[in-house]
Amino acid sequence: MRFAFSDEQLAMRDAVRSFLENECPPKVVRDAWTNDTGRSGLWPRLGEMGVLGVLAPEECGGLGGDFRDLVLLLEESGRAALPEPIVEHAAVAVPLLEGDRAPAAAAGGVTITVAPPSGLLPYGADADLVLVGDAFLEPRALSLRPHESVDGSRRPLAMTTPPNSISHAVTEQAALGVAAQLIGLTDRMLTMTVDYAKERHQFGVPIGSFQAVKHHLANVALALEFARPLVYRAAWSMAHGDNARFVHVGMAKARASEAALLAARAALQVHGALGYTTEYDLHLWMKRAWALAASWGDAAWHGDQVGRAILDGETTPEEQ
Amino acid sequence: MRFAFSDEQLAMRDAVRSFLENECPPKVVRDAWTNDTGRSGLWPRLGEMGVLGVLAPEECGGLGGDFRDLVLLLEESGRAALPEPIVEHAAVAVPLLEGDRAPAAAAGGVTITVAPPSGLLPYGADADLVLVGDAFLEPRALSLRPHESVDGSRRPLAMTTPPNSISHAVTEQAALGVAAQLIGLTDRMLTMTVDYAKERHQFGVPIGSFQAVKHHLANVALALEFARPLVYRAAWSMAHGDNARFVHVGMAKARASEAALLAARAALQVHGALGYTTEYDLHLWMKRAWALAASWGDAAWHGDQVGRAILDGETTPEEQ
Amino acid sequence: MDLTFTEPEEAFRAEARSWLEANVPRPALPSGDTREGFALHKEWERALFDAGWAVVSWPQEYGGRDASLMEWLIFEEEYYRAGAPQRVTQNGIFLLAPTLFELGTKEQQDRILRKMASGEETWCQGWSEPNAGSDLAGISSRAARDDANDGWRLSGQKTWTTRGAFCDRMFGLFRSDPEAERHRGLTYFLVDLHAEGVTVRPVERLDGDEGFAEVFLEDVFVPDRDVLGAVHEGWRVAMATTGSERGLTLRSPGRFLAAAERLVDLYRAHADDADPTVRDAVLRAWVDADAYRWQTFWTVTRLMDGGRTGPEASLVKIFWSELDVRLHETALRLLGPRAELVDGDDAVWMKGWQFSLSGPIYAGTNEIQRNVVAERVLGLPRR
Amino acid sequence: MDLTFTEPEEAFRAEARSWLEANVPRPALPSGDTREGFALHKEWERALFDAGWAVVSWPQEYGGRDASLMEWLIFEEEYYRAGAPQRVTQNGIFLLAPTLFELGTKEQQDRILRKMASGEETWCQGWSEPNAGSDLAGISSRAARDDANDGWRLSGQKTWTTRGAFCDRMFGLFRSDPEAERHRGLTYFLVDLHAEGVTVRPVERLDGDEGFAEVFLEDVFVPDRDVLGAVHEGWRVAMATTGSERGLTLRSPGRFLAAAERLVDLYRAHADDADPTVRDAVLRAWVDADAYRWQTFWTVTRLMDGGRTGPEASLVKIFWSELDVRLHETALRLLGPRAELVDGDDAVWMKGWQFSLSGPIYAGTNEIQRNVVAERVLGLPRR
């Protein structure tokens, strides 16, 4: 039993973190709400860094890695609130690609999104391909209706007829990828709020010195501390092909979703009116968290999956 | 719309409160854990005061009142943690009695307990009669097994065969009576804890000056403030014969149970180790609250009743 | 105790219901927290006023109908049941008016109240400042005496003034005695936002509406007649009234009863794929709203018997604001992955969710409110 | 990252499991927090010690088997999975021993550790005093120098000493420098409870067991060799060790994993009449226990790589103590009106519930622990 990442995995994590700190500051996230694509413009460079091709075989220009190599990078994409369909593309689509599409996808030459059961395609307007069931289709082959999301970067397109069957593998990889992003979002919202609570003074003292504020933030730290290992454990189960991976992914997504929603609530409450304006950056993270907590199965849906396994002894996930 | 008690009702409440403050101090509750009967010895005097006969017709020596006249008195019995089957006797049995049993019951000459669906008869060992379904039976006519309760005064007797059908009226009157007691218990636990938090010093200040302690107790006050009117409203619905009274009783018992359990948790947490010993009085109230919150339908059971009415449009309570 | 409504109460309800059914705009107006929407809401307020429904609990001379508090509650229930528009006049009617009734001069009452009720003059509040949020006594905006013109000169900045970008006038506290500190030396002013020296900058709220504004004041003249209450006594003036005489609160049970009913409808529409825990959450929201209703009838009966509301108001603010958050959170759970959409019919829930999140923050954060409950209701030491 | 257990780890688990299956007393022993039960538990501790299972992570010379932290976790899982008795030696093994290993003299280690591990000498802690609960620095029990006899004379009162009525020895802090205040001038003493001047009064706990005691000391002589660490440095000594070298905590995941499995069994037995919200609560308790397990493997891997545990320990204490409360609360909900019974098979849940309620209180209330998390993990200002 050794529950830690390798030095290589941590080094890659650090590289991606500093890349995103420099190239994807809040301004980039904010601009994605109003630009043409809803995206960061960093896609090709993420390809160059190998982030998009982690799960692609080396002969396709990928790293030939598994979810252990990817999970920390997706967590970083959440920390930065990177406005890209990176989970759909790198965690779901890339490993399923064949032929010359794989190298292009690994390099960031194309962008692929994935149809969830709701039929709402995140970043669909700017995607080259859409994975529907087990088929990669071009957007123009689909009947799509544009929608606005509370997260201005996501620009979901609604399929007139959502996919009728989605493989367990797709659901698991997408849900775990989103769970990793939610961990990163939670961590960032906690940090932002701690920093604010140290600076903001009321009644002559920093608001962070009030016990109620301390306990709000301690509760977020608690949720994060015990959700994060579930996400990493699920990453190993995916890599290892564990039969119970749907249960492990379910626990991970459920707890990561709850942690992120709690963090958003606490962050807003501690920030007060300032956090309630779109001029301040918090809302960009908060709204991403709201959207992702409900996507690819919310806490209740995954809790139901886990319950069927733990309480009823089911050994396979429910059909969607 | 006039939601207030009459001067007579308040005067009777005050009389009962001061009677119990004088005659049923914590020592009496504590002694009931170890004496022969589990009871206070105040039964005949409660009869004299008219408390037991509130719902009995005047020609039977009762007050010919309704649940509006009784609810505050039951709340007081909870505040004092009175160790008596007063809900079973005064709220359920007395109004059903006929013949010469009624005057005796109203006067406190006999003690009647009631068989709940669980078949556990509170204070059964010292009861003269047991209401089983719609029949008043003598204990020796039943096959009973003695049990110990976490509340040392209750001394439940378990029926080998619990009653197979209990009328809605009995369930509603018992559940509402217990809800009223839970309100009194909650109020008393809150008061005890506020008093302690003012006196107990740590770190050079009263612990009641810590924001975490303040918020624990504010949350109890909140639960109590919004549960109590539901109990009084249900009392009116019972008196008025409102068709939805099972819904109103359900809301009352659910919220009163939750308030009492919350109060017990907060009270113990604020008292700390002191509250964790049986030498201190808190546990007498806490354990009564645990027992009553689960009796005659816990919060979830009544919530289910309410849900069937509000969400599914059912107009009658579920058969037990 | 009699929990049936009297015949006059039932008649009042019936009259309100039929007028609302006939007059509530369909389709619903756009948000009143946008410039266009605000204008449309002012028309609606005018219609309410002309029909005598704008301020039912006020005296007739100011456009009311001398309704009892119980009738006011009934009107609120009917108003939200009918899905009528938000009240863009509410901050004047519910926050300023009670103070005017209690401490204003007859001249001020005659000059201000009818125009406030009709929406001819709309009011926003100017409490918060960049460094005075929860800690209102941190106010630093100044009022300098201008004897020559029998008035005052106000300078400083107010923030988070709801609909400040669209309103005509603002009420707020300013530091009239530079020597005094904290709660002392403040004066309660009524400020014309069209006056010289006032600059208003709209601020975008979480939901994208410009529902907030920053108000910058530079040497703005305010005549003595627009001082409310005694000079330097502004804090006492602002805190004096509970408003319990003519309307309890901005957030009476009616709005939550209506929202809970809509939530139950939403649940029924999604019942097949709703998990059991969300069913429980729906029910809790409904019971919360009903509990708030009965706690309010209980309180109002006491008030009509001559009682006063005190710090218990903090319990009420905590309860409705957290009930509102849970209620909308539950709606979003029912909508699942479609909850993120801010276009289409269901988008009202995401908008309502974001609005609900302001409840535990404004008018004293719920952390402060819990302190108030602990200290002033339960009597725990202030420290 | 490899989340499979190694062959040596699996072999260790198998050995522990088979020994426990063969030796765990059936039926279960009476509570070790009663005089009779305590004696029986001491016999069990002796058997554990003789088989080398009492202190697996200790060096062999003191009765351990030099097991790794990971193996210690595996042993804990197997121990509770087997339904083995409570550890009446735990306060010595988990609270005093790590300090002895880190700061005790070789003489003290040789004299004390084996007898502690075998249960021949049982230890209780003497931290709390009537006016020093959460605020440990409020300690007022005194230690006066007795040069004539090369030792100290202790006087004062200790309270809430778990199993103090049955134990042989007590470790605790006493004020050796009457001039110094708060955390200064305290010394860490090892006290013989059979010595002259010691009076022990049993105190009945919530569940009726005499699991607590008050210890009164009147001029009790303690030789210099029973001072642990430096004189006047007791606070530093008591806080010095995290205990992470030889066992993380009194409450490793194993106990909660086993309790969660029993809860699932109870749920299955009541599934027909269990409402959906309680099903969710059962699942949450199970997932909580599993989350604690993986968070612990995560931490232990870091420790085995040479890391240290710090204030994060407060997060762990909050988590397991509140998980334990929720878990037992859920069991009582499943039992419904029969939960109140304290006789019969299901009574273990009511007893466990009452025991769980001490978790958020002792060893630093969870309110204090949340302050520690906020201040020392997140870096918020102390004030």
The parts of chain A where pLDDT drops under 50 for at least 5 residues are none
Low confidence ranges of chain C: none
* Order of strands in the sheet with most strands of chain C: 1-4-5-8
Q: What's the total count of β strands of chain C?
A: 8
Number of strands of chain A: 8
The share of residues in helices of chain A is: 40-55%
Largest interface, C-beta within 8 A: A-D, 44 and 48 residues
Write the H/E string of chain A, N to C. HHHHHHEEEEEEHEEHHHH
> Strand-residue fraction of chain C?
5-15%
How is the main sheet of chain C built?
Answer: 4 strands, mixed
Structural class of the secondary structure composition of chain A?
Answer: mainly alpha
User: For this entry, what is the oligomeric state of its chains?
Assistant: heterotetramer
Looking at the structure, what is the overall shape of chain C?
Answer: globular
Span between N and C termini of chain A?
A: 34 Å
Could you estimate the helical fraction of the residues of chain C in percent? 40-55%
Shape of chain A: globular
Enumerate how many helices of chain A there are, as a single number: 11
Mean pLDDT rating of chain A: 96
- Evaluate the radius of gyration of chain C: 21 Å
Number of helices of chain C: 11
Radius of gyration of chain A: 19 Å
Structure description:
The complex is a heterotetramer, with two copies of chain A (about 325 residues) and two copies of chain C (about 375 residues). Chain A has eleven helices and eight strands. With about 325 residues, chain A is mainly α. Chain C has eleven helices and eight strands. Chain C has a four-stranded mixed sheet. A four-stranded antiparallel sheet of chain C has the order 2-3-7-6, with no helix packed on it. In chain C, strand 6 (about 200-205) and strand 7 form a beta hairpin. Chain C is globular. Chains in contact: A-B, A-C, A-D, B-C, B-D, C-D.
